[in-house]
Amino acid sequence: MFPEYRDLIHTLKGSDAHFTRLFEQHNDLDHQIKRMESGEERAAHETIETLKKQKLHIKDELYTILRKADAARKAG
């Protein structure tokens, strides 16, 4: 996820608790969705779709944080 921000992600995970929580939530949702889609964990199609929407919303938040941090880093 966001390979162009790999270094910045590493930095934020060490310094921004909110970013770290969001990043971990995104990864947890990703793993849960994969387990459900593979049949390892049972779930209704609607449940999977809801989780995918939550994951996308978190990804959007992470991207916003990364863009702001990148702009601040370049300005400073």
Model description:
The protein has three helices and no strands. With 76 residues, the protein is mainly alpha-helical. The longest helix is centred in the C-terminal third of the chain and has 31 residues, at 45-75. It is elongated. The two termini are 25 Å apart. The mean pLDDT is 97.
Mean pLDDT figure: 97
Radius of gyration: 15 Å
* Separation of the first and last Cα atoms: 25 Å
Contiguous low-pLDDT stretches (5 residues minimum) are none
Tell me the fraction of residues in β-strands, as a range.
under 5%
Number of helical stretches of at least 4 residues:
3
* Form type: elongated
Which secondary-structure class do the elements indicate?
mainly alpha
Helix/strand order, N-terminal first:
HHH
Helix content: over 70%
Largest sheet, in brief, is: none
What is the total tally of β strands? 0
Question: Which key phrases capture this entry?
Answer:
76 residues; mainly alpha; 3 helices; elongated
What's the SSE blueprint?
Layout (H helix, E strand, L loop, with lengths): L5 H10 L1 H22 L6 H31 L1
Helix pairs in contact: 1-2, 2-3
A few lines on this structure:
With 76 residues, the protein is mainly α.
